[in-house]
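Q: C-alpha cells for this one, please.
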Amino acid sequence: MPAAGARCRTCDEADGGRVRIVKLEEKRTDVNIATDMLFDAFSDAADSFALFSGDSDFIAPLDLIRQKFGKQVLVFDPHERFSDICYHASYYAHIPRDLPARCQLPEVVPLPNGRSIHRPPAWA
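A: Here is the predicted structure, written as C-alpha cells:
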C-alpha cells in the first residue's frame, strides 16, 4: 500500500497524472435511506414508510421495520426486473419508470394575479 500522500505511478504516467473515469456510481444513498428509515422506526416517528425502489439491498431494513417495530412498509418499484423485495413489504406495487417525471408540475404555472411560476431547470 502506498504511503499517505504518495501518487500512483501508473496514474502519473497516464495522461499527465490524470485518469479517465468511465462510470460514476454513488453508493451511499441506499445506506442513508435505510438508516433514516430505521431511525424513524426506532424513534416511533411514523406508522408507515413508503419506499420508491426495488433494490434488494433494502430487504433487511424492511424486515426489521415490519417485524421488530410493527410498521407498515409500502414499496413502489420502478424497475422492470423482478425483485424479491415484494415479499418483504406490507404492500408492493410496480410503477412505470417515467411516473415521477409525468407527475411534475408543468414548465410554467400561471397564478391568479397574472404572474407565473417557472419550474427550476434542474427538475426537468
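A few notes: Helices lie at 9-13, 29-42, 59-67, 99-102. The domain at 28-97 is CATH 3.40.50.1010 (Rossmann fold).
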